[in-house]
Design brief:
The structure is a single chain. With 418 residues, the chain is α/β, with parallel strands linked by helices. It folds into two domains: 131 residues, Aspartate Aminotransferase, domain 1 (Alpha-Beta Complex); 252 residues, Type I PLP-dependent aspartate aminotransferase-like (Major domain) (Aspartate Aminotransferase, domain 2, 3-Layer(aba) Sandwich). It is built from 14 helices and 17 strands. Strands 4-10-9-8-7-5-6 form a seven-stranded mixed β-sheet, with helices on both faces.
Length: 418
Amino acid sequence: MSAVAAVPIRKAGSFDLARIREDFPILRMKARGHDLVYLDNAATSQKPQAVIDAIVQYYESGNANIHRGVHYLSEKATEEFEVGRRAVQRFINAAHVKEIVFVRGTTEAINLAAQTFGRTQVGAGDEVLVTAMEHHSNIVPWQMICQEKGAKLRVAPINDQGELLLDEFEQLLGPRTKLAAIGHVSNALGTVNPVKRMIAMAHARGVPVLVDGAQAAPHMQIDVQDLDCEFYALSGHKMYGPTGIGVLYGKAALLEAMPPYQGGGDMIRSVTWEKTIYNSIPYKFEAGTPDMAGVAGLKAAIEYMNGIGVEQIGAHEHDLLEYATRVVGSLPGVRLVGTAAEKAGVLSFVLEDVHPHDIGTILDQQGIAVRTGHHCAQPVMDRFGIPATVRASFAVYNTRAEVDALARGIGRVLEVFG
């Protein structure tokens, strides 16, 4: 496959917001006759031209199935696919490239872990520990395993600021705990959990840990060896990559011991009527034709983020979050939901006597895209006694001017509802 389009070269440590915005063609469009203000990045981020070009170029000049052909295109596609795997390995600092399993996204990654590691390790009377701020994707798969096995799902509580109560988390790590499944960053609250400390607590009791990193990977440097987690899951589409591609990192020894998740082509060494011998990792977990174009796009997204600097991205988003917290939080009737001391770029709020869906509709009429609802985190909403929130979430291309537009939009909501 031909080399993908070059990522814009920037001086290390530099941050040129105007130029970054030029990299995202969708930001030039109008929405409802207004300049688009896209603040729904926790749901999915927009894509830079380099990522779009990488996907197009794959289909234009490199499309072939991988691992199975001896012809030129298949060999080149295979090579680029594995180059993409190595890019992910470096991005999260995994010890071995074979620890990187490509999946459709964080949801499938967690389900893979639940249906393989969870199914073989969890038995009757055992426990799986999660936190009260988890996304449904890190709740439901474990509920399914617990129901099937006669095990119990335990939940570590959070305080009124949306912070995990660490002492209670530690106390819930008991002799029957077979896994702790924890979110790195809450999609509904923006809370950044002290996952390294939580992993150390779990390991002190012999408990392995899965980290849902869907909301962390776009905002901060991930080092799975430093964290020492057993599993880490992320999604490409939240970190400027395409939809339908994600990663499950797993420690090699665990992946080797786990049974396959699905059966089919490419996950086998040999098949007879009597017996199937499975492929080595990570291929044992990648049955069927994978998303080769998605891997090309994910690789380009990683290169794009690295070209700016993940720490620079996080610093910019933190500035936007602090600014938005002041500006939006000072508006009459606004109550912020999730005020943890450590947060990523998520601002959730409610407005007195106005349903979040109505707020979202009026903002949309002004070209402002936010997310309204329970954000696939209904237990979080129940914890705060609300049905839903409005969520503005920030990315590398957002500006303080867009935060001001959000504030003006909320002002319009206040005018409409008196």
